[in-house]
Every structure is written in structure tokens, then in C-alpha cells.
Amino acid sequence: MSEPEQEQQTRKPRIAVVFGGRSSEHAVSCATAGSVLAALDADRYDVVPVGITRDGRWVLESADPARLAITAQDRLPEVDGSRSTVALARQDDASDLVVHEPGAVPRTLGEVDVVFPLLHGPWGEDGTLQGLLEMSGVRYVGSGVLASAVGMDKHYMKVVLASHGLPVLPYTVITPAGWESDRAACAESVASLGYPVFVKPARGGSSIGISKVHGPDELDAAVEEARRHDPKVLVEVSAEGGREVECGVLQGFGSNPSDTSVVAEISVDPAHEFYDFAAKYLPEEQTRLDVPADLPEGVAARIRELSAQAFEVLSCEGLARVDFFVLPDERVVINEINTMPGFTPSSMFPRMWAATGLDYPALVDRLVQLALHRGTGLR
Fold this sequence. Notes:
- By secondary structure, this protein is of the alpha+beta class.
- It has 12 helices and 18 strands.
- The strands form 4 sheets. Strands 13, 14, 15, 16, 17 and 18 form a 6-stranded antiparallel sheet that branches.
- Pathway: Cell wall biogenesis; peptidoglycan biosynthesis; Glycan biosynthesis.
- One of its GO terms (cellular component) is cytosol.
- Pfam families: Dala_Dala_lig_C (PF07478), Dala_Dala_lig_N (PF01820).
């Protein structure tokens, strides 16, 4: 047996945890990475933290979870752009991490076995990074290019879900051309939904750029706020009186079916009109997470069934969190699907799985193992 083959058999799998990125969810991604870095078993895996700066540079980051925590809205974590640059380099049917330092010869950290991409939003969660990893022949945690792209774009996500008979809220889309050429027509389309409505960046997350609009006099400002984060805007009916619930999905190994978690409910402090960024991530905010949710057995079963169906319809892999509204008449509608949900201490996804019997370290390990057992390319 050759020396490289012996090394391949004896060394620990190398996991590159990639986080940060160019989207407005940069800080959330950093916080998520801090939690995952703390949970990965250093005795089983060689863990390499890779940060992507806000301008898109890849750097060899610190593995200190405390540095990546969200402590207050005016003190959000950020990737340190002064650190050494790192890149994936394809060599001899494998991809190595290569570190570039000023005035020094590039050095390799060795072959990457799995990338754990913890980026949220565009340029990371939307299929772009997944495409890069596919081209580099590197296995990775989570959904592939198509599912990531569709899951990121709330417009096309609704199109795909509705085309398979899954329930979604009524909506309209405001495109850049439509808003710039005929705002009156856009306003008319929104009015046909009936107020109140929610105005959202079509390809955003973490409730950034979202506004609840109660009447036409508030629409322009809400659209402009959403357009600061995405030129394409989605407007949907407000699920008045609806309960906001979520369910986690994990892909099964091999041909085994996907697993669903218990259903959880979010109850937001009355100071917040909806589940906004502060309610989600700031430690001092009073958001109650009921895990499991107090729901009729049939409603909870319906939510878990729809979660598995949405995961399948979008061709998701690895993991997803599916968000729902339970309307006052107990009808269930899908709000959205997240192909890379947050893993912060306050995040619902790990809490739901803990209540289902899979604790945080075991959850992270299962995702890594799922990635190690699949290939890249068409599948």
C-alpha cells in the first residue's frame, strides 16, 4: 500500500466549516458556525474554520466559538478579513485547502473530505457555493444546487410547492422592471391580496428587510426597504390569527425515508409585530419557543407529513426546516422551507431535534456522516 493510501485510511476526515459570506445574514452565519465548531468532535474530525468576508475573500478563521456569538444588535460577529487567505485547489482527484500568506510560499492544509457550508442567504445558501463545490468534486452538507436555489427564492419555492398541490399563502411578486416602470400596477396587484400583507426580499432570510404593511400608504417604504436587500420583492397575505410553527427534516441514509422532528411553535413578545431579527437572535428578547407545540395530534401529524413532502418535492438533501402557519380554522399552509436553517443556541432546528431524541452533537455528526456517504455530481 502506498504512503498516500495509508495516510488516507488512518487520518481523521477533514471538515471545512465555511461561514460568513456576502449576504446581509453574514452575522447570523458566523453565530451558526460558532455553535457547530463547538459541537464537532475533535477526536473524530480534523476541523478547519474557513470564513468568507463581506467582500467575498476566503480566510483561515479562528475556531473560537465565543468570538462568533451574537451578543447585541450593535455588536454582531464578522469574519476577520486580516487573516491568511485560503482557497480550494483541485489536485489529483482531490481538493486541498491551500493557505496563502504574504511573503511566504503557499502551504496546503491537506485534502478536504466534507465542507459544512453554514452560509445564509445569497452567495452561499442559494446554490452558488454548492455549484462551486460540485465543480471542485468536494462533498458537502445539505442540499444540492437546484434545491438550494429554489429554496432560497421564495417566489419559485411557492411555484414548485403549489404545482405539487402543497398549500401556500396567496402572493404577488414585484420585479425590478415592474417597480421602476409601473408602481401603480404593483400597488394594484398588492391591493388585490387584501391588507395587511408582508413585504419581503424574495431571496433573503433571518427576517431582514421584512415589513408588515397595514395599508397602501405604507407600501412604497416597505418595498424600498426590501429592495435594499434584494431587487426582487415578494408580497404575501398576512396569516392573521395564525400560529407560527416549524418542523425539521433529516434525510435518511441510503434508501431510507427522511425523518421529521416534533413540531414547535414560536410565540413572539407583543413588542414585536412579527418574528423579526431581534426576536430571533438577540438574547434579551422575550420570544417563547414551545417544543413540542401544543397542537391537536392530527394537525401535528399533518405538519410532519407536509414537511416530508416539501423536502421531497424540492429534491432537498441533508436537512431542512419547514415553516408553517396554522390558521384559526386549523388549516395548515407552508410559509417557506430553509435548506440551511440556523444552528445558533436560540435556533429552532436543533431544539426540535433535541426534543425528538437527537441532541446537538449527534445532529451535527449525522449531517457530516450523510455528506461523507454521498458523492458529488448528478445523483
